[in-house]
């Protein structure tokens, strides 16, 4: 008999500068939420790198301060895997604006660990295409193909 197929998806999460001091706790929540952490990298982005990462927002009013914030200190990029990883992680982190999230989704991670409308603790890829691009951005050698459940996570 064939074993059951388990479809595992990957997403890119970032612990942003305002939440970096709570990284261990946040990683614990991630694991308890059923994700495997496949790859992990702590890095301080240059303004150029932060601009490239958020290029879809180039030209918007908040772009310069977003770039300044994301390059203001270390971040931790994490490749997370589980079923429906992209949508599930976005649901867990909640709405973009921490202040509004506290009113509408008080249990979401941004409501609990974010700071304001910009410093919102965590990033999550918003689509499969974004996840591929963002994983490659932080982990250029990453191979995008199905990962067996239970594969060991490496630091
Ligand atoms: P992220 O990409 O960081 O996971 O956030 P998101 O998808 O929920 O929101 P997105 O629209 O992609 O915005 C990227 C980041 O830009 C800042 N932002 N500020 N002041 C504003 O109106 C505003 N809108 C967005 C936030 O830091 C947001 O995470
Ligand atoms: Mg986004």
What does this entry look like structurally?
- One of its GO terms (cellular component) is cilium.
- This is Nucleoside diphosphate kinase homolog 5.
- It is found in: Cell projection, Cilium.
- With 155 residues, the protein is α+β, with helices and mostly antiparallel strands.
- Helices cover 37% and strands 17% of the residues.
- It contains 7 helices and 4 strands; from the N terminus they run E-H-E-H-H-E-H-H-H-E-H.
- A 4-stranded antiparallel β-sheet has the order 2-3-1-4, with helices on both faces.
- Helix 2 (47-53) crosses helix 3.
- It is globular, with a radius of gyration of 15 Å.
- The structure holds ribavirin triphosphate and magnesium ion.
- Ribavirin triphosphate is lined by residues 57, 62, 66, 96, 117-118, 120, 123-124, 126.
Helix content: 25-40%
Q: How many domains make up the coordinates?
A: 1
What ligand species are in this complex? ribavirin triphosphate, magnesium ion
Low-confidence stretches: none
Task: For the largest sheet, list the strands in their spatial order.
Answer: 2-3-1-4
Total E-strand runs? 4
- CATH C-level class is Alpha Beta
CATH topology (level 3) name: Alpha-Beta Plaits
Shape: globular
Separate helix tally: 7
Straight-line distance between termini: 36 Å
């Amino acid at each position: 008999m064939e074993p059951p197929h388990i479809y595992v998806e990957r997403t890119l999460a970032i612990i942003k500068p305002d939440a970096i001091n709570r990284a261990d706790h946040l990683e614990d929540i991630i694991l308890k939420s059923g994700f495997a952490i496949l790859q992990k990298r702590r890095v301080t982005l240059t303004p150029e790198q932060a601009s490239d990462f958020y290029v879809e927002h180039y030209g918007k009013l908040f772009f310069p301060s977003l770039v300044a914030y994301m390059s203001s200190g270390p971040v931790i990029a994490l490749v997370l895997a589980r079923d429906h990883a992209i949508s599930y992680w976005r649901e867990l982190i909640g709405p973009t604006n921490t202040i509004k999230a506290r009113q509408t989704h008080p249990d979401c991670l941004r409501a609990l660990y974010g700071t304001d409308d910009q410093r919102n603790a965590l990033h999550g890829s918003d689509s499969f295409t974004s996840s591929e691009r963002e994983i490659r951005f932080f982990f250029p050698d990453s191979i995008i193909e199905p990962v067996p459940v239970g594969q060991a996570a490496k630091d």
